[in-house]
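Changelog entry: the RidA family protein record was regenerated in this release. Current contents:
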Amino acid sequence: MVSAVNQPRAIRTDLAAAPGGHYSQAIVHNGLVWISGQLPIRANGEKLVDAPFEEQAALALDNMLAVLASAGGAPADLCKVTVYIRDIGNWPAFDALYAARLGAARPARSVVPVPELHFGALIEIDAVAAVVAQP
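Regenerated structure tokens:
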């Protein structure tokens, strides 16, 4: 049993898309933040699934970073990032956007080609980061 002091804490920010199902944008527990998959969906719910890959990737990255910031983290706190893309040919474009957004931070990362993603998106990103636990 988890003590009340050590309870997982849900993260919710209006700077990224609200969950579309039964899940949280992220959970903080024992100094780690587990960020749910972020799609190219604006905070207002607008889906950019018909936009070019670079625009979708930039928004998914921005959503992931907004959720991370809401949990008290920054790019330097990222431990592991998993990126799901529908076309591995987009890897170089993604890597350039990723490097620009993360700067000197170089977390462990996997880029996984997949046949399809929810809503027809071209990219989805989830992550794990180390953050200072907040009461």
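The mean pLDDT is 94.
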